[in-house]
Amino acid sequence: MGKYEIIATAAMGMEALVAKEVRALGYDSKVENGKIMYSGDEYAIARSNLWLRTADRIKIKVGEFKAYTFDELFERTKALPWEEFLPEDAEFPVIGKSVKSKLFSVSDCQAIVKKAIVERMKKHYKRNSWFEENGALYRIEVALLKDVATITIDASGQGLHKRGYRAAQGEAPLKETMAAALVMLTNWHPDKPFYDPFCGSGTIPIEAALIGQNIAPGFNRDFVSEEWNWMPQKVWDDVRTEAEDLAKYDQELDIAGSDIDHRMVKMAQENAFEAGFGDLVKFKQMQVKDFTTTKEYGVIVGNPPYGERIGEKNAVEMMYREMGQVFRELDTWSIYILTSNEEFEQFYGRPATKKRKLYNGSIKTDLYQYWGKRPPRNKELEN
Ligand SMILES: C[S@@+](CC[C@H](N)C(=O)[O-])C[C@H]1O[C@@H](n2cnc3c(N)ncnc32)[C@H](O)[C@@H]1O
């Protein structure tokens, strides 16, 4: 087995969650600027892709160095052991980004990195002609930050939020990685009721079900590194078998969602079916103000409209008020609402137990948390 420097990338504000997940997989990591860095073998690469619920992608770091000039970028890229990563037929496009660096022309940096790799590979594979690049994809990135170039290969392919179950989506769907993060930030356990009153395309309830049954979020998709010649098929077979063994398909769940829009409900049902939860996660059409329950100690996670669109503000604020009144009755439930509306607590009618800043894409939001009463001791023991 080889040893690789692995980077799990994380959206702003999600680093601690990704680091926690990486630790749970058994790897010690370092966190820096949206990157969770750790070392591991081929199994670590496969497991990270398959299991990390809140990371954006998995990358392999090939090298990192200071580069103030194009010459330095070229020479230091050429000095890296590319032949250990790229076979002769590799397809290796180069993408790039540059932040606060002397080398700010991204297209030039990409071209130079490409040229340096080609040069190195020509020498190693003893070729004078161009490479056909008709084999597996190794997407390379040169990322400059304060004159430090980090060169990586993407091991995921499509971003990890693409779980493979979301065929249909509404207007403002939450990324699956973010939905998983919301569930993981609650005190929910699979034996408690879980409810999303603004379910849209169903992302939050579906992610809760995946977590509840300990199903690997990537079980339903493939990864670009499955095609790599140095990632043996046995590794992928082993980690998929392991994931199958770890899944708790018998875990009973009480997960449901509703939405004011019946088209959304249909979409959520289709997506849940795609994820394998057709019978397990229940969806219905309903307005949040009609929510009632006789159940206790449940968890509500909701991503309501934020009221940012013109003409929507008043209606949304009114709906926040109604929500506050309805949820006031649920003193054993814990309630988590994600919104960018900074006056949410006023409309809802109560200050949150705790607020956590999160970015929903580029929108700065807060997760307003209202913790419910704890179960009495004997109930806690039963749970
Ligand atoms: C931001 S979207 C939720 C997106 C969802 N998390 C997803 O991943 O697809 C907000 C949803 O709230 C629904 N909604 C708006 N007002 C509502 C109300 N009063 N009661 C229930 N649902 C409402 C909208 O139809 C919309 O689907």
Task: Explain what the structure shows.
- The chain has a seven-stranded mixed sheet.
- The chain has helices at residues 15-24, 42-51, 70-78, 106-124, 176-184, 203-212, 233-246, 262-274, 313-328, 344-348, 377-382, and strands spanning 4-9, 30-32, 35-40, 57-66, 94-99, 140-145, 148-154, 193-196, 254-259, 281-285, 299-302, 334-339, 354-360, 363-370.
- Helix 4 links the parallel strand 5 and strand 6.
- The mean pLDDT is 95.
- It is built from eleven helices and 14 strands.
- The protein is α/β, with parallel strands linked by helices.
- The longest helix is centred in the N-terminal third of the chain and has 19 residues, at 106-124.
- The two termini are 42 Å apart.
- The protein binds S-adenosylmethionine.
- The site of S-adenosylmethionine (SAM) has 20 residues, from helix 6.
- One of its GO terms (molecular function) is methyltransferase activity.
- This is Methyltransferase.
- Keywords: Methyltransferase, RNA-binding, Transferase.
- One of its GO terms (biological process) is methylation.
- Residues 44-155 form the THUMP domain.
